[in-house]
Design brief:
- By secondary structure, the chain is α/β, with parallel strands linked by helices.
- The protein has one domain: Aspartate Aminotransferase, domain 2, CATH 3.40.640.10.
- The protein has helices at residues 24-37, 44-57, 67-77, 94-101, 120-130, 148-158, 209-218, 238-266, 305-308, 316-324, 334-340, and strands spanning 61-64, 84-88, 105-109, 134-138, 161-165, 173-174, 185-189, 202-205, 280-281, 287-289, 326-328.
- The strands form three sheets. Strands 1-8-7-5-4-2-3 form a seven-stranded mixed sheet, sandwiched between helices.
- Strand 2 (84-88), helix 4 and strand 3 form a beta-alpha-beta unit.
- The two termini are 15 Å apart.
- 48% of the residues are buried.
- This is dTDP-4-amino-4,6-dideoxygalactose transaminase.
- Belongs to the DegT/DnrJ/EryC1 family.
- InterPro entries: DegT/StrS_aminotransferase (IPR000653), MethylDNA_cys_MeTrfase_AS (IPR001497), PyrdxlP-dep_Trfase (IPR015424), PyrdxlP-dep_Trfase_major (IPR015421).
- Keywords: Pyridoxal phosphate.
């Protein structure tokens, strides 16, 4: 397989992390430099990674050890303790759990069937009833939530802080606008299975300097705030930061390959799938279909969060989605890319 997808994918693409073997020497060169530098954390490679992320995301970035550390920093900044936080149930448990552990009351809202992301209609219904201080919107599967513009406008009008869970959304955009830029903050994941990865890691982005300042202090025991910010260690070390810089440089190629494969090979085979709105590009963390398939990587989420947490909630679309979607294998071919893809 070269840089162009095979028109007859059989058997399905084998599992592969979003990593290109051609980058190994560059990564090792960076790691050797770190070993010799005596600066293994919180130094030049972290700054380089954050600058590289900003160049793609077009927002200032603060790197973390994982998504959860970034989420806790954002929630701590907005002082949600004792407040209500809206959260879609169709998400990973980390999203509501971060709000819960921050002292907030979590109220779940429903998703849309066609994109698996938060429903504007149910968002408004729950917001009018519960008056949240903050709300999460989750970009699922690699695309941006279809109702993001309406939800963001509503939150701005009502004074609700909007936080984007961008864990899946690396490489996505909607008419050039990147995930994390619609609300007040965005939080990305760099976990091992993501489109680009540092093994473990996370990134907070925001257009608000006070959010960024708080995040930088929160990840480092409250340093820089006179220790008024009460937290522990959520720093990204230099090894992961150096790896992340190489990864984000490779990201456009990884995403472009997935987009081409999805368009040319998978779309003709799976008409009953998530269909993107005009102007939206997905990073294709997942390729989601609404038909049972013989070879699947499973569901995006097997169980909705309200089911996991034992919360009584009438969320018919969320329950429907859990039963009626599957993910087609779609992995960047790291070994073959190393042998034949264009530089």
């Amino acid at each position: 397989m070269s840089g162009q997808p095979d028109q007859n994918p059989s058997p399905p693409l084998p599992f592969s992390l979003g990593y290109d073997d051609r980058d190994e020497e560059e990564i090792m060169r960076r790691w050797r430099a770190i070993l010799r530098s005596n600066k293994w954390s919180h130094a030049a490679y972290l700054e380089e990674f954050e600058d590289a992320w900003r160049a793609w995301n077009e927002l200032p970035a603060v790197a973390f050890d994982n998504w959860a550390g970034g989420a806790m920093a954002v929630l701590d900044h907005f002082k949600v303790r004792g407040a209500t936080v809206l959260c879609p149930s169709n998400t990973f448990l980390a999203t509501p759990r971060a709000a819960q552990l921050s002292g907030a009351e979590v109220v779940f809202y429903d998703c849309n069937r066609h994109d698996l992301c938060g429903s504007f209609d149910d968002f408004v219904a729950k917001a009018e009833r519960h008056r949240p201080a903050l709300a999460f919107i989750v970009h699922i599967g690699g695309h941006i939530a279809f109702d993001i513009h309406k939800i963001a406008a509503y939150c701005q009008d009502k004074g609700i802080i909007l936080v984007e869970d961008c864990a899946h959304a690396v490489g996505a955009d909607w008419n050039g606008q990147k995930p994390g830029s619609f609300g007040d903050a965005g939080i990305f994941s760099l976990y091992a299975t993501k489109t680009i990865t540092t093994g473990e890691g996370g990134v907070v982005v925001s257009r608000h300097e006070d959010v960024l300042r708080h995040a930088r202090s929160y990840r480092d025991y409250g340093r820089g705030s006179g220790y008024k910010v009460q937290s522990l260690n959520h720093r990204m070390d230099e090894f992961r930061a150096a790896f992340g810089t190489v990864q984000i440089r490779r990201m456009p190629e990884i995403v472009a390959w997935k987009q081409t494969y999805a368009r040319d090979v998978l779309d003709p085979l799976y008409p009953d799938r998530v269909r993107l709105p005009e102007g939206m590009s997905s990073g294709f963390y997942k390729y989601i279909v609404f038909q049972s398939i013989p070879t699947s990587t499973g569901k995006v989420y097997e169980l909705p969060c309200h089911r996991i947490m034992g919360v009584e909630a009438d969320l018919p679309n969320t329950d429907w989605v859990a039963k009626n979607h599957w993910c087609v294998p779609l992995y960047y071919p790291r070994a073959s890319a190393a042998q034949g893809a264009p530089e």
